[in-house]
Specification:
single chain, mainly beta, rRNA-binding, ribosomal protein
Length: 103
């Protein structure tokens, strides 16, 4: 069985025992999390498409770890002006293992 869920403004196709990395979710490692925004669910040829969500469907998961993504560098420069600025940013993210799909 698989499902398409929406979290953090992005959509993910998931199945049982998948590990996905999503935008930061509240909670510690080992906490359970429930994704209620299921856009599509099904098995093989039997697919339920939501309008916009599938009624009664939910996906449960377990938080594996809270971490930071790879650093993104922002570099500004104006030629011939000796103007250079370099900044870095690391986005927070959460690794989640999908434990069950209902509906």
């Amino acid at each position: 069985m698989f499902a398409v869920i929406q979290t953090g403004g992005k959509q993910y196709k998931v199945a049982k025992d998948d590990i996905i990395v999503v935008e930061k979710l509240d909670g510690e490692a080992g906490d359970k999390v429930d994704f209620g925004d299921v856009l599509l669910s099904g098995t093989g040829a039997d697919v339920k498409v939501g309008a916009p969500l599938v009624k009664g469907a939910s996906v449960t998961g377990e938080i594996l770890e809270q971490r930071k993504a790879a650093k993104v560098l922002v570099f500004k420069k104006k030629r011939r002006q000796n103007y250079r600025r370099k900044k870095g940013h690391r986005q927070n993210e959460t690794a989640v293992k999908i434990t069950g799909i209902k509906g």
